[in-house]
């Protein structure tokens, strides 16, 4: 198996108050003191960051070409997020991840898909029936 | 409708690494030259969030993000000026994000209410 490095939900990320402050600063949002609910926009970064680190994308990623995400529950400061995912290969040199993000209470906070264009296609030779096992 | 423009800054590229992690496609100039893009590209989520912010500023509303779908059609680079064209429907927006050269870099839908 060349592409997948970590099993789903191995990597976990706690959301800090400072995450929100940095996020508000860099994107020119009004800074809100002691906000407890994490903006869903920031969760885009966090969830995709966990997926980035779950795969050895340094070697394989050419570009993200499509993404879909839906949020179900508010994430709060100090929550810890992990991501469950499945990989399939609908077309040559593309990779589709279906994912669900969970908080530390095992509640699903978001789900979606992430379609990547891969720089290398030989990874496909190691895939049986379109799925990694 | 159309939003104002925003210039993509180095800080937009670098701050995203806190959450997205560091990949050389974004941060190695030497590697960037070898890619089809010829230079480092901005994280797709950064283009997405800048677009969302432009929409919120234009509409003067918080517009919480409940669902977001997008397709990345062209890369965005530091120094690009991007703006958004959009159509507001009952509880969602459809939008396209454009750069200074008139290239559509992203299109998508943004649901802000259940």
Fraction of residues in H or I helices of chain A: 10-25%
Rg over C-alpha atoms of chain B, rounded to the nearest angstrom: 14 Å
Write the element-wise H/E pattern of chain A from the N-terminal end onward. EHHHEEEE
Unreliable residue stretches of chain A = 123-133
What does this structure look like?
The complex is a heterodimer of chains A (133) and B (114). With 133 residues, chain A is an alpha+beta fold. Chain A is built from three helices and five strands. Chain A has a single domain (12-124), classed as Thiol Ester Dehydrase, Chain A (Roll). Chain A has helices at 17-26, 40-54, 57-60, and strands at residues 12-14, 61-71, 80-88, 94-102, 108-118. The model of chain A is unreliable at 123-133 (pLDDT under 50). Chain B has 114 residues and is of the alpha+beta class. Chain B has helices spanning 10-15, 17-20, 24-27, 29-34, 44-59, and strands at residues 6-7, 67-72, 81-88, 92-98, 104-111. In chain B, strands 1-3-4-5-2 form a five-stranded antiparallel sheet, with helices on one face. The interface between A and B is medium-sized, with 31 and 33 residues. Strand 2 of chain A pairs antiparallel with strand 2 of chain B, so a sheet runs across the interface.
Short description:
The complex is a heterodimer of chains A (133) and B (114). With 133 residues, chain A is α+β, with helices and mostly antiparallel strands. Chain A has a single domain (12-124), classed as Hotdog Thioesterase (Thiol Ester Dehydrase, Chain A), CATH 3.10.129.
SSE order and pairing:
The complex is a heterodimer of chains A (133) and B (114).
Chain A (H helix, E strand, L loop, with lengths): L11 E3 L2 H10 L13 H15 L2 H4 E11 L8 E9 L5 E9 L5 E11 L15
Chain B lengths: L5 E2 L2 H6 L1 H4 L3 H4 L1 H6 L9 H16 L7 E6 L8 E8 L3 E7 L5 E8 L3
Antiparallel strand pairs in B: 1-3, 2-5, 3-4, 4-5
